[in-house]
Design goal:
The protein has 256 residues and is α/β, with parallel strands linked by helices. It is 47% helix and 16% strand. The chain contains twelve helices and eight strands. The chain has an eight-stranded parallel beta barrel, surrounded by seven helices. Helix 4 runs parallel beside helix 5.
Length: 256
Protein backbone atom coordinates (compact mmCIF):
# COMPACT_ATOMS: atom_id res chain seq x y z
CA UNK A 1 0.00 0.00 0.00
CA UNK A 2 1.28 3.45 -0.93
CA UNK A 3 1.98 6.08 1.70
CA UNK A 4 -0.77 8.70 1.64
CA UNK A 5 1.15 11.97 1.25
CA UNK A 6 -1.93 14.05 2.04
CA UNK A 7 -2.46 12.19 5.32
CA UNK A 8 1.16 12.95 6.23
CA UNK A 9 0.61 16.60 5.36
CA UNK A 10 -2.54 16.73 7.52
CA UNK A 11 -0.71 15.23 10.48
CA UNK A 12 2.00 17.86 10.09
CA UNK A 13 -0.44 20.69 9.30
CA UNK A 14 1.32 21.28 5.97
CA UNK A 15 -0.09 23.00 2.90
CA UNK A 16 -1.65 20.91 0.13
CA UNK A 17 -3.38 21.92 -3.07
CA UNK A 18 -6.21 20.08 -4.75
CA UNK A 19 -9.09 20.56 -7.14
CA UNK A 20 -12.52 19.16 -7.93
CA UNK A 21 -13.43 16.65 -10.62
CA UNK A 22 -17.01 17.01 -11.90
CA UNK A 23 -16.56 15.51 -15.39
CA UNK A 24 -16.51 11.72 -15.56
CA UNK A 25 -13.81 11.33 -18.21
CA UNK A 26 -10.60 9.76 -16.80
CA UNK A 27 -8.53 11.97 -19.12
CA UNK A 28 -9.44 14.98 -16.97
CA UNK A 29 -7.17 14.01 -14.02
CA UNK A 30 -4.39 13.19 -16.48
CA UNK A 31 -4.63 16.68 -17.99
CA UNK A 32 -4.88 18.41 -14.60
CA UNK A 33 -1.92 16.47 -13.19
CA UNK A 34 0.43 18.72 -15.18
CA UNK A 35 -0.50 21.57 -12.83
CA UNK A 36 1.04 19.77 -9.85
CA UNK A 37 -1.97 19.19 -7.64
CA UNK A 38 -1.43 17.02 -4.53
CA UNK A 39 -4.96 15.63 -4.57
CA UNK A 40 -8.11 15.63 -6.64
CA UNK A 41 -11.61 15.21 -5.25
CA UNK A 42 -14.18 13.29 -7.28
CA UNK A 43 -17.45 15.09 -6.69
CA UNK A 44 -20.46 12.81 -6.34
CA UNK A 45 -22.57 15.47 -4.63
CA UNK A 46 -22.90 18.20 -7.24
CA UNK A 47 -22.19 16.48 -10.54
CA UNK A 48 -23.53 13.67 -12.73
CA UNK A 49 -20.66 11.37 -11.70
CA UNK A 50 -22.03 7.96 -10.74
CA UNK A 51 -20.52 5.15 -8.70
CA UNK A 52 -19.73 3.35 -11.96
CA UNK A 53 -17.51 6.30 -12.98
CA UNK A 54 -15.56 6.50 -9.74
CA UNK A 55 -13.19 3.57 -10.24
CA UNK A 56 -11.76 4.84 -13.53
CA UNK A 57 -11.30 8.31 -12.07
CA UNK A 58 -9.52 6.89 -9.00
CA UNK A 59 -7.21 4.89 -11.27
CA UNK A 60 -6.42 7.97 -13.35
CA UNK A 61 -5.70 10.11 -10.28
CA UNK A 62 -3.45 7.43 -8.77
CA UNK A 63 -1.61 6.79 -12.02
CA UNK A 64 -0.76 10.48 -12.17
CA UNK A 65 0.74 10.55 -8.66
CA UNK A 66 -2.08 12.39 -6.93
CA UNK A 67 -4.21 11.32 -3.98
CA UNK A 68 -7.82 10.37 -4.86
CA UNK A 69 -10.51 11.70 -2.55
CA UNK A 70 -14.25 11.35 -3.07
CA UNK A 71 -16.90 13.77 -1.93
CA UNK A 72 -19.85 11.46 -1.44
CA UNK A 73 -23.34 12.76 -2.07
CA UNK A 74 -24.50 12.10 1.48
CA UNK A 75 -23.39 10.69 4.81
CA UNK A 76 -24.32 7.20 3.67
CA UNK A 77 -22.41 4.22 5.06
CA UNK A 78 -23.00 2.02 2.02
CA UNK A 79 -21.80 4.67 -0.42
CA UNK A 80 -18.74 5.49 1.70
CA UNK A 81 -17.89 1.77 1.99
CA UNK A 82 -18.10 1.29 -1.76
CA UNK A 83 -15.89 4.24 -2.76
CA UNK A 84 -13.33 3.18 -0.15
CA UNK A 85 -13.42 -0.41 -1.46
CA UNK A 86 -12.79 1.00 -4.94
CA UNK A 87 -9.56 2.53 -3.66
CA UNK A 88 -10.34 6.06 -2.51
CA UNK A 89 -7.77 7.33 -0.02
CA UNK A 90 -10.40 9.27 1.83
CA UNK A 91 -13.81 10.87 1.77
CA UNK A 92 -15.20 14.35 2.11
CA UNK A 93 -18.59 13.97 3.78
CA UNK A 94 -21.17 16.75 3.39
CA UNK A 95 -23.55 18.18 5.96
CA UNK A 96 -21.66 17.27 9.11
CA UNK A 97 -23.68 19.20 11.68
CA UNK A 98 -23.13 17.27 14.92
CA UNK A 99 -20.97 14.76 16.75
CA UNK A 100 -23.31 11.97 15.65
CA UNK A 101 -22.89 12.98 12.00
CA UNK A 102 -19.11 13.04 12.36
CA UNK A 103 -19.00 9.69 14.13
CA UNK A 104 -21.20 8.09 11.46
CA UNK A 105 -18.77 9.23 8.76
CA UNK A 106 -15.74 7.85 10.60
CA UNK A 107 -17.52 4.59 11.40
CA UNK A 108 -18.39 4.12 7.72
CA UNK A 109 -14.69 4.28 6.76
CA UNK A 110 -13.23 2.14 9.56
CA UNK A 111 -13.67 -1.54 10.34
CA UNK A 112 -14.58 -2.87 13.80
CA UNK A 113 -13.60 -2.22 16.56
CA UNK A 114 -12.98 1.39 15.43
CA UNK A 115 -15.94 1.56 13.07
CA UNK A 116 -18.85 -0.31 11.54
CA UNK A 117 -17.79 -0.72 7.90
CA UNK A 118 -18.63 -4.08 6.40
CA UNK A 119 -15.67 -6.11 5.21
CA UNK A 120 -15.44 -6.94 1.53
CA UNK A 121 -12.61 -8.00 -0.73
CA UNK A 122 -12.33 -5.70 -3.70
CA UNK A 123 -9.66 -3.50 -5.27
CA UNK A 124 -8.62 -1.66 -2.09
CA UNK A 125 -7.85 -4.97 -0.36
CA UNK A 126 -5.94 -6.38 -3.35
CA UNK A 127 -8.96 -8.57 -4.11
CA UNK A 128 -8.34 -10.39 -0.83
CA UNK A 129 -4.59 -10.84 -1.13
CA UNK A 130 -3.66 -7.71 0.83
CA UNK A 131 -6.37 -7.53 3.46
CA UNK A 132 -4.06 -7.31 6.48
CA UNK A 133 -1.93 -4.71 4.75
CA UNK A 134 -5.06 -2.72 3.92
CA UNK A 135 -6.30 -3.01 7.50
CA UNK A 136 -3.09 -1.38 8.73
CA UNK A 137 -3.26 1.25 5.97
CA UNK A 138 -6.86 2.06 6.82
CA UNK A 139 -6.06 2.83 10.45
CA UNK A 140 -3.01 4.97 9.66
CA UNK A 141 -3.44 6.41 6.18
CA UNK A 142 -7.14 6.87 5.39
CA UNK A 143 -8.70 10.33 5.57
CA UNK A 144 -12.09 11.55 6.80
CA UNK A 145 -12.87 15.19 6.06
CA UNK A 146 -15.95 16.82 7.54
CA UNK A 147 -17.66 19.35 5.33
CA UNK A 148 -18.87 22.26 7.44
CA UNK A 149 -21.61 24.03 5.54
CA UNK A 150 -24.44 25.00 7.87
CA UNK A 151 -24.81 27.37 10.78
CA UNK A 152 -25.92 24.39 12.91
CA UNK A 153 -22.45 22.91 12.41
CA UNK A 154 -20.90 26.18 13.58
CA UNK A 155 -22.97 26.01 16.75
CA UNK A 156 -21.80 22.41 17.34
CA UNK A 157 -18.26 22.89 16.08
CA UNK A 158 -16.43 21.81 19.25
CA UNK A 159 -18.27 18.48 19.47
CA UNK A 160 -17.61 17.83 15.77
CA UNK A 161 -13.91 18.60 15.98
CA UNK A 162 -13.40 16.43 19.07
CA UNK A 163 -14.82 13.36 17.32
CA UNK A 164 -12.01 10.78 17.03
CA UNK A 165 -11.09 10.03 13.43
CA UNK A 166 -11.88 13.41 11.88
CA UNK A 167 -8.68 14.41 10.08
CA UNK A 168 -9.67 17.76 8.61
CA UNK A 169 -12.60 19.95 7.74
CA UNK A 170 -13.51 21.83 4.61
CA UNK A 171 -15.84 24.81 4.56
CA UNK A 172 -18.69 24.71 2.06
CA UNK A 173 -19.03 28.47 1.55
CA UNK A 174 -22.13 28.50 -0.66
CA UNK A 175 -24.27 26.35 1.64
CA UNK A 176 -22.89 28.01 4.76
CA UNK A 177 -23.83 31.44 3.47
CA UNK A 178 -27.17 30.04 2.31
CA UNK A 179 -27.92 28.70 5.80
CA UNK A 180 -27.58 32.28 6.99
CA UNK A 181 -29.97 33.52 4.33
CA UNK A 182 -27.16 35.10 2.34
CA UNK A 183 -26.25 32.64 -0.44
CA UNK A 184 -23.02 33.53 -2.20
CA UNK A 185 -22.36 36.64 -0.08
CA UNK A 186 -19.00 35.43 1.23
CA UNK A 187 -17.83 38.89 2.29
CA UNK A 188 -20.89 39.48 4.46
CA UNK A 189 -19.90 40.14 8.06
CA UNK A 190 -22.03 37.31 9.47
CA UNK A 191 -20.68 34.79 6.95
CA UNK A 192 -17.08 35.81 7.63
CA UNK A 193 -17.73 35.59 11.37
CA UNK A 194 -18.98 32.01 10.97
CA UNK A 195 -15.91 31.07 8.90
CA UNK A 196 -13.61 32.59 11.53
CA UNK A 197 -15.34 30.62 14.31
CA UNK A 198 -14.76 27.40 12.34
CA UNK A 199 -11.12 28.28 11.66
CA UNK A 200 -10.41 29.15 15.31
CA UNK A 201 -12.03 25.91 16.50
CA UNK A 202 -9.89 23.93 14.07
CA UNK A 203 -6.75 25.56 15.46
CA UNK A 204 -7.88 24.87 19.03
CA UNK A 205 -8.53 21.18 18.37
CA UNK A 206 -5.66 20.57 15.95
CA UNK A 207 -7.93 19.86 12.97
CA UNK A 208 -6.52 20.94 9.61
CA UNK A 209 -8.53 23.68 7.94
CA UNK A 210 -9.81 23.26 4.39
CA UNK A 211 -11.57 25.55 1.97
CA UNK A 212 -12.79 25.19 -1.61
CA UNK A 213 -12.20 28.36 -3.62
CA UNK A 214 -14.36 27.89 -6.70
CA UNK A 215 -12.96 30.68 -8.86
CA UNK A 216 -10.18 29.89 -11.35
CA UNK A 217 -8.61 33.22 -10.38
CA UNK A 218 -6.07 32.35 -7.66
CA UNK A 219 -6.51 35.68 -5.86
CA UNK A 220 -9.42 34.35 -3.77
CA UNK A 221 -7.62 31.09 -2.98
CA UNK A 222 -4.56 33.08 -1.89
CA UNK A 223 -6.67 35.04 0.60
CA UNK A 224 -7.86 31.82 2.24
CA UNK A 225 -4.36 30.37 2.16
CA UNK A 226 -3.13 33.41 4.10
CA UNK A 227 -5.92 32.89 6.63
CA UNK A 228 -4.50 29.45 7.44
CA UNK A 229 -6.50 27.05 5.27
CA UNK A 230 -3.99 24.26 4.59
CA UNK A 231 -6.23 21.85 2.66
CA UNK A 232 -6.92 24.18 -0.21
CA UNK A 233 -9.26 23.19 -3.02
CA UNK A 234 -8.67 25.38 -6.07
CA UNK A 235 -11.52 25.65 -8.59
CA UNK A 236 -12.75 22.67 -10.63
CA UNK A 237 -12.34 21.05 -14.02
CA UNK A 238 -15.29 22.64 -15.84
CA UNK A 239 -14.52 26.15 -14.58
CA UNK A 240 -10.86 25.89 -15.58
CA UNK A 241 -11.95 24.74 -19.03
CA UNK A 242 -14.67 27.34 -19.50
CA UNK A 243 -12.68 30.30 -18.18
CA UNK A 244 -9.59 29.45 -20.24
CA UNK A 245 -11.65 29.09 -23.44
CA UNK A 246 -13.60 32.32 -22.85
CA UNK A 247 -10.48 34.33 -22.01
CA UNK A 248 -8.48 33.02 -24.97
CA UNK A 249 -11.24 33.56 -27.52
CA UNK A 250 -12.01 37.05 -26.24
CA UNK A 251 -8.35 38.00 -26.72
CA UNK A 252 -8.37 36.50 -30.20
CA UNK A 253 -11.53 38.40 -31.18
CA UNK A 254 -10.36 41.68 -29.66
CA UNK A 255 -7.00 41.47 -31.43
CA UNK A 256 -8.85 40.93 -34.68
Amino acid sequence: MKNNKVKTALLNNEQTYGSWITLANPLIPEIMAEAGFDWLCIDMEHSSIELSDVLNLILSIENNNMVPLVRVGENNSNLIKRVMDAGACGVIVPNINSHDDAKAAVDAVRYSPNGTRGVGLYRAQGFGKKFQEYLDWLENQSIVIAQIEHIDAVRNIDEIFTTPGIDAFIVGPYDLSGSLGKPGKFEDKEVQQAINIILEAGEKHGITAGFHSVSSDPSEALLYKKKGFKLLGFSLDSIFLGDAAISALQKLKNDG
